[in-house]
Each structure stands twice: as C-alpha cells, then as structure tokens.
Design brief:
The chain is α/β, with parallel strands linked by helices and 162 residues long. It is 40% helix and 12% strand. The chain has six helices and four strands. The chain has a four-stranded parallel beta sheet with strand order 1-2-3-4, with helices on both faces.
Length: 162
C-alpha cells in the first residue's frame, strides 16, 4: 500500500536565537510553513524527525513550548484524521514522548518512536493500530512526587469533662 508522507526534520523548524537558546516564535513560524505545505499537498501523515537533536543536561523544550508547538499544527488546520509520528534517538527528558502524550490528550493521533520502521508501520496503519501501539508499549510516564514538608505533629488537645 503506497504511503504519502511528509518528513519534517528538526533542522527545518527548530530555531535557536543569537545566544544559543531555543527561539519558540521562530520555530513555530517555520513549523507553520511546513504544516501548511503538508495540507496544501493533501498529506495526512507526517513524521517529525528529531534524531539529529542531541539533548544536553537541560531540556530544549519546556512543557509550555510543547503545548505551543502542538497548537501550531491545530492552527494550521491539522485535524483528528491526520497522523503525526515523532521519531527520536535520545529522549532523556521525555520531551518527544510528552509531546505525543499531550497531543493524544487533545484527541490527536500522535505517537513517539525510537525506531524508524515502527514509525512508518504505524503511519501506514489504520486507526486501531494507534491504540494497539500505545497499549503494547505500556510505557510509563515518569511522575516526580512533590516533596511534602513534614509538619510537626501535635497531639490532639482533649478537654477534660467536668
């Protein structure tokens, strides 16, 4: 079965400012152009290839950045019929997987992969493949528990009855 697919490489949309920091507005503008090109060509499958990004000790994208990038696809006219795969090599800060998870919470068909062939297989599959893939991975999302400050416990005051 033929598959029409747009591959969006990180260097095509990730923009850095003069001081080497992630430039969200420039990145969104570049991503907007790429998303518009997909829609104009009538493509409903895209792969965001992040394999050339090598994360440092701190994440490049904040959760707000991820939400903003997700909104870029929606603003450009991507619908829930579209399918987006995010391909990564390293994801120590879980940003690729968070992007996919946040997108799925909004009803989008987005999945993160560390394997190119798995991503293509999923992109070429049907709707049930998404649920099967997500369930089969059984990938847990790390949750950092908040540290609760221990408050000193005081003994309950009991008033004597007279």
């Amino acid at each position: 079965m033929p598959l029409d697919l747009q591959i969006i490489r990180a260097n095509e949309f990730v923009r850095m400012g003069a001081e080497g920091h992630f430039d969200l507005s420039a990145s969104r503008a570049a991503l907007s152009e790429l998303a518009a090109a997909c829609l104009k060509r009538g493509l409903n499958r895209a792969l965001v290839d992040l394999r050339k990004i090598h994360p440092g000790p701190k994440p490049i994208f904040t959760p707000d950045d991820l939400a903003s990038l997700i909104n870029t696809f929606r603003e450009m006219g991507f619908t829930k019929e579209h399918r987006l795969a995010v391909l990564y090599t390293e994801d120590p800060h879980h940003r690729a997987r968070d992007f996919a998870f946040m997108s799925r919470l909004r009803g989008w068909h987005v999945c993160a992969f560390d394997d190119f062939e798995a991503a293509l297989t999923w992109l070429s599959g049907d709707e049930e493949d998404l649920a099967d893939y997500v369930m089969a991975r059984g990938e847990s999302v790390p949750v950092k528990p908040e540290r609760s400050q221990s408050l000193p416990r005081s003994k309950p005051k009991i008033k004597p009855r007279h």
